[in-house]
Amino acid sequence: MKVWKRLSGISASLVLALSLAACGSGGGNSASPSSDSASGSGGAAGGEKVKLRIMWWGSQQRHQATLNALDFYTKQNPNVTFEPEYSGMEGYLDKLSTQAAANNAPDIFQIDPSWVADWASRGQLADLSEGVDLSNVDEKLVNGGKVDGKQVAIPLGSAAYGMIYDKAAMEKLGLQPPKNGWTWDDFFKLAKESKSKLAEGQYFTKDYAGDYFAFSAFHYAEGKGLLVTEDGKFNIDRDTFLKWTKQFEELRNLGVVPPADVNASDKEMDPTGDLMVKGKILIRLSFSNNFVSWDSLKPGAYDLVTMPRSKEAGGWLKPSLFFGVSAHSAHQEEAKKFLDWFTNSPDAVKILGTTRGNPVNNKVAAEVASSFSAADKVGMEMYNATAVDGQQWTAGASGWTNWVDKDWALIRDELSFKKTTPEQAYEELKSMAQEYEN
Amino acid sequence: MGNPFKKYRIDYLFFGCFALLILVMLGCTVWTSYSLSSKELAKATSVHQQKLLDQLNNEIASRLTMIEQISLSTSRDNKLIYFLSKSGSEDEFTRFQTFKEVQQSLANLTYSIPLIQGIDLYMKHPFQADSYSYIQFRDLDKASEQSWYPDMRKNDFVWTGKQVIKAFQGDIAVISFVRSIEYNNRHLGYLVVHAKADSLEEMLAGSSADANRMMLDATGQPILTIGKVPDEAQWSEWKNKLTDRSGLFRVALQGERGGGLLVYSKMNQSNWTMVEVTPWSSIAKGSVRLAETIGVIGAVSIVLALLLALWLSRQLTSPIRTLVSAMNLYTLSGRKVDLPEDYRNEFGYLFAGYRKQMDRIEELYNSLEARHEQLRRAEIETLQANINPHFLYNTLDQLNWMAISAGQPEMSRILELMGRMFRIGLSNGESFITVADELEHVQCYLEIQRLRLGNGLNYKIEVTEEARKLYILKMVLQPFVENAVIHGFHLQSGGTVVIRIRPEEGFLRIAVEDNGVGLRSDPDRQAKRKTGGYGIRNVRERIKAYFGHPYGVVLSNREEGGTRVLITLPLMRERPGPANPN
Fold this sequence. Notes:
Chain A is of the alpha+beta class. Chain A has 17 helices and nine strands.
């Protein structure tokens, strides 16, 4: 009897304890979602989960440095992840344009300085006037990203336009390597001089006859200014154009520049497609910041030299690249935060080096300069040499992108394939330009 | 073994039966709910999966069809045909410009259709593009090194399995659609459209992250897979079970006890088959949860029900135990155990019955004790009485001798008769004597009275020989005879007493008659006369004590004068045993 009483007492208290425990765990369950949501809201304070699509073009160096920077940023801001899309320059603009046409542009995308005005006028770029600190950035660079007083693109670096040459090959061939401050006359003289020394299938430089940028440098050096005026007028000096194309016609006939098919096969900075990397040419145009990429393909082989000059300096400093934020992006605030970090954080500047040109934040650049590689420093040296009296870069008139990219490309091929004469080419360019003039 | 209901305590039985019943019911419930719900779930799951797979099939097939269509229209593109057919036969500039246009239009396809990772064009005398470019021009002679080449010898187009191509982003997995480009019966090259495998896998996965699905091509070979899918040997075994229509069957899975469910979807307009394998355990997860929940609820209810059973059985057995302990504690010492008074049901009747019985027992015990006391006193009295008569008898004997020696024969005769009377009166303490002895006793008395009164007193005794042997309560007659002699003949000098004894219908009837003055009508003495004196009352009481109704004594006046006493006694042929063995 007593035992039973005690047992029943124990079991009763057990049941009570169990039911209490059940209540307790029930309470715990009901409490846990609230704590989840609390941590969720805590996360929201640091930013909700965001995946930013970001797209750029460039060389392997730039890809790797940028990916490292993105990883670093995600580690510091775990709520932000990235979906990077990257490729070479070829097809980049087409791809970006296609995506933009489908309202599917990436949140952040790299644009060339000359595209800024076009893209802004098409309403594809978000207003970045607030949220990205550009107080330590050279005003010229900042202005390159402004359209109608609104900051629509963030400068990522500045670069000098010059030339890169195969130091080792020139020495082997017994050619005097060029020096900073050399002239176009020196350039053509050296080209002709090389004729007798070049091996079979080897050439001095690319066929730049129809190259928009090379001719721009020549045009500048001759003191003729921009190819298209800032207010959108065709401005190529006929004599200068003929002088330039005829010099190359001569080089072409001499066999100092490659034949058309070889010339067309060149893929800049492609390990298997770049003519200089393949040892087929000795010198080519290059931005100061691209030196690291070539140097990585053949370490120590190359050096930079300023753009040849004539009456005036041939080279110029320009904002190398910009980042724009899509006007249709759902994450503009997060994108701005990232761009602010990308521009001003010493970490970012250290990771990126000069893969997009000299860092735009002068203060930070000075702080971290010591950490830059020797290749970075070669680029900076040429940059500084160009800075002395370099041409004033402008974004150019808006709406001329296709003239530069497509029409000039056609002229280039026609000249290279000897399908046209310098005179015809000039007339053609001039007539095609009428389509763009306002 | 025996009947447990006779062996074990009721509360254990109660408890055990309850527990057993609940356990059995719980087991049945859990098992039934598990098996029914898992069957239902499997049915629902398979229907749902079938629908989902059909949907996925439609979706993916339409994407792949789109790629096939794009490939078709591209392969018929005039520019492309022109580029390929004139390859090498015209001037380089035009060819280069055509190349760029073709490259541009192919590249535009990849830009505008995100599913397309890239396009390879196998042709004679290709141009070289960037090594990682989306659009690659390859030498037709290299086509024979490709995995799809053998199939293309028999087909115009074919889908390849998953393969890896190089891109800026590193190695990218793709599945590729290869189409042979023919023009005017001339084979010009191959157009290979690479579709991003991860996009397709994402579509295949749909919203369910952990599904195990496969996409099969027309030959039943898996092209895309996600999750855990059967290996090649396993698959070739299952493959044969697929029919032309969508369906499902159970399969055995490694590491899965319950196996799995294979659901597949084949659509009329599609070459593709979608297969989903779901481990049975994940299908039955819901039912296991259900069973567990029911089990937990059941366990709690078992505990509660057992407690209830315990409480109930204790409620039911506690009165029994109270009663039993009351019985155990009962002593004749009379300390009464109090039983609860508030039961109105069967227990109430039981308690009331027990209480009544106890009361009866106590009553009986008390009366028994009184009887004992009486008996003891009677024994003492008897012993004392036995001493007195012996002493008197001896004294009478001595008196008789004294009378004889004193020459008093009459006194001697009286003393002798008295002695006989005493002897019969004593009768060794027996209460019953024969009628003959009784009559002798009365005769002795009458003799003495005749000696005292002279011959005026007559008496007559009528009795059969048979009746004399019967037994009778002793000294029944003497008081009435004495009454007749002393009171009846008081005023007369003589009288007659008649005694009649006869057995009749089981009774012994005795009549004592006299012709005396009869019963007195004097109101003052009537009561006394009616009931008789001490002797008569003694007789009445003894008859009443020994026999009760209808035996007894009736006194009445005779019509012719005198008194009649009628005594009715039982007919006793043997001496009755002692009334109380004690």
